[in-house]
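Format notes (please read before filing issues)

Several people have asked whether sequences and structure tokens are stored in separate files. They are not. Every record keeps both together, in the order shown below: the sequence lines, then the token lines. Line labels are part of the format and must not be stripped during preprocessing.
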Amino acid sequence: MSYTYAVASRSQASPDAVFTVLVHAATWPSWSPIDAVEIEGGGDPTGRQHVGDTRVFRTGRTVSQERIVELIAGRRFGYENVSGPFRSYRGTVELTEVPQGGTDITWSAVFVPKLPLSGPFWRWYLTRFMQRMANGLAAYAETTTDRDRPSPSG
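Then the structure lines:
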């Protein structure tokens, strides 16, 4: 059985600025509950990531691996969890420009847990965790100046 969650946040930063933060793994520990990140295979987490790259995230003693499966500049960031408690997990971060300026961020996923009957727990947990992610992303993109933010080209 598949489960879903969706959380939302709003940033005063432009969709391009928010997207730039998303595609630079090295920024994630600055704005999220994630403690550390590396790129599988020794890639540079300070550079822009691409479709096919796998990121390894550490949060406390928990390690997760996620592969980037979709990038549409300024609009969408898609990934799949490739290790952990899920048979399948597809997450998407949608960025929508707000007419008066800024970005609406919607972070959602569809997942199937490995452990039977654990779906309601994971939906509850992931909704809380990902709301923190979306809020942190929104705030970080607002406060990081163009000089401090990695360039979209890497």
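For reference, the curators noted about this record: The radius of gyration is 15 Å. The chain has a mean pLDDT of 91.
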